Fold each of these.
Amino acid sequence: MQRNLILLGAPGAGKGTQAQKLSALWGIPQISTGDMLREARRQGTALGQKAQAFMDAGKLVPDEVVIGLVEERLGRPDTREGVILDGFPRTIPQAEALDRLMAKLKREPVWVLAIDVPEAELQLRLGGRRSCPKDNTPYHVKFNPPRQIGKCDQCGAELFQREDDRPEAISKRFAEYQNKTAPLVAHYGTRAKRVDGTGALDAILERIQRALVG
Ligand code: AMP
């Protein structure tokens, strides 16, 4: 059975953390447009340069840029058994493009899961978030710390704080989320299942799995 899953949720809701767990559990790739864009920036590609100013300002990158990235990624063979989309779609035009793409690639329709976390908690989470530049493993200095301070558990790389996890960009990202991404839950209607994204990471993972079978 093919599993194609979209994870929706505000910045800091835990999409990346849960996507990584589900990816390991199901043996299918996590596709994070945020990670792909950060990688393009690190490599200094034309696309990375184009995305940089939007990302640092906490704004969404233009639809055609991310749609092109996802189209290319979904064309690769490792996606045939399914994918976990983390951070895409983030606008209604992106959701419409995804439906067209899945139909063109003859993939099964996607499951949609929205992770709910109150805004006050999101603020706390984003301030302490750290990431691995090599394998993108997400951490939090307090809620999900690495075994050794500042170092990735998986590969030992020095963790970094994202530019857009600083206070000025955070408020812009929330505004973008409210205006452009939150309407996707209504857009998907009954296709979208909702789960409470607070509490222990493994408890959230269980809730997600239960919501998808139920
Ligand atoms: P994320 O790591 O998912 O929080 O994404 C970081 C940043 O990358 C976002 O604030 C946007 O600037 C950009 N980005 C990632 N995914 C998308 C998307 N689907 N549409 C537009 N911009 C995106």
Amino acid sequence: MPSTLTLSAGPLFLVLGLPERGMPEILAFGRGAAAPDFWPDVPRSSRINGMDVDVPSAVLSPVAGLGAFGWPAIAGHRDGRDFLLDFAGWTARRDGATTRLAASDAVAGLDIEIAITVSDAGVFGLSTRLTSVKDGVYTLDRCMAGSFLLPSGEAVATRFAGMWGREFQIRRHTLAPGLTLQESRRGRTSHDRQPYLGVSVGDVRFAFHLGWSGNHRIAVDTLDDGRRLVHLGALFEPGEIRLQKGDSYQSPVAYAAWDAAALHAFVRAEILSWPGGAMSPRPVMLNTWEGNYFDHKLEELKAQADAAAALGIERFVLDDGWFGRRDDDTSSLGDWTVDRRKYPDGLKPLVDHVTSLGMQFGLWFEPEMVNEDSDLYRAHPDWALKVEGRPFLRARHQQVLDLTRPEVADYLFDRLSAVLGSLAVSYVKWDMNRDITHAGGADGRAVTDAQTRAVHALMARVRAAFPHVEIESCASGGGRTDYGALANTQRVWTSDGTDALERLEIQRGASLFLPPEIMGAHVSANPNHQTGRTLSLTFRALVALAYHLGVELNPLDMTAAERTELAGFIALHKRLRPLLHAPGANFNLDPRDGRYVWGAATAEHAAVFVAQGPSMIAEQPEPLVVRLPGAPDRRWRIAAAHGDCPSGFFRMSDGQTRLLSGEMAFSAAALASAGLPLPMQRPETAILLELVPAG
Ligand code: GLA
């Protein structure tokens, strides 16, 4: 008789039946208390015109050959043979928060281990390892990390669309019956197909994510009984994963949570690793890219640093342009030595200047890349990924280095170490500015998967050697944003799109799986460099203020009045930072009629951002409903209204004036039901309301 296994992750439960052979059956997956007993010995198979054997279809990692006909999560062969799989002898072993299910297929010569990790944050993590135990080569075509079960019924999917500068655009659609597939083949997490999927079916909702920075696949397959399996895993090129006897393939981890709040708690508790063991208050940054591009002038940069320090900035990040002979994006990637034309005495004078002002110093690298116009490429043209006989496809004039070759990884580690070991650099912006098209290794075989692992390994090596250094994950903005990358990084550059109006959507989207304190959000110049749009400083600052705040402009180009205003917002951010970045405090509401609402709330203090993007269509705005923690009858008042208040309102009644000036108190229950009757805001205006308990 099969045995039953019940696992809990915070409020979520997963109940599995371990069969004698076949794959573990998912008996139940959901939220609440798991029923204490199940009916593992009653077959859940009564197909008309079906097989003469009992075939459960809701299983972990379905495979071909068992009599169920769904999408196989694991597939491979030995030169065309052993294409069917049938694992037997399942055992379960608990190992801390991880339960390992293991079995073997003696015919195909494969061992399998499915690891299920539970987190109190309310997240299940599934990963799968296959080991070949037979002579010859087992070619693995597919091995999904894990499978999750959803109920039947109309299912609405939430996915991301996007492109460079406009990542994390939320798209919702009803799932069709049959198979829905998302595949990403860009060799990085991508701007257009993030490894994220939200699904709601009635009152059941789940968010899924794959912690993987390479090619991926997410499949949703309808089962014979109408329920659905969601599979997440890496996507291999043909013939990419070949297992010799004794070799294993270890998948990345697929995560499932109820909602964004659980994912945020999980990232904070279990993914991020901070220098010193705990997150320090997120330093306000100045990033030099949009203020200087490749035009580095030492004295001018020092003056910018002076101005930055006066603004209250705490970290100065020198972006692209400091190395090789990098005057534009056509050369020097790979030559990680200081450009002595721009910095005759090296970077030390600038680093010393910045640190003497009390700021941290950060530096940009793009380790995986090489320009053909570089000393590195001239010395080692064979170090770039390529497929013999195929032309290079350049992107931003650059090629991708083959990090699977130890000498390449060692070279990069040495170059990074030389800089990090000799200068007071406490922050690295690790960029990756092209998709990978020809991921061929030295023997002509595809290495996309191995390259992804090699990048993670290099990041881990740098982290281990320089544990005080924080790393930002950037790939032309948010192109490498996933929990695999975040295991070794502490911030993402959310998007190269710095237009605050565009950022409303981008940041709301990224907030579905990232907590605010690791999302880079910068105040940029007017007009915006990507869109040409002009927005008030208030709008630009308030849209960035709740996240990891930065400035992406040349402060010397600002008027004295603008500098004073920006310094005020930076001071406001610093005062509110403990609240905005407090675990469990942040919230993000679905926008209505162009009005975006987000912020953070504890039982003692709330910060509510309200930004109106495009003009409202409604005659008057919907009351603003916000749920505050603490007792429902606790009375609150508006202690301060920052930003475009009252200037951004079309018209204010006397009552609204009294409400916004804090004269009127209201209960948390009233705020959560009736809502705040705010005036209508003009387009492209933003306010920040601070709420405190009244009296
Ligand atoms: C990418 C990054 C930018 C900047 C440039 C430098 O586009 O996303 O922030 O660092 O590279 O070339």
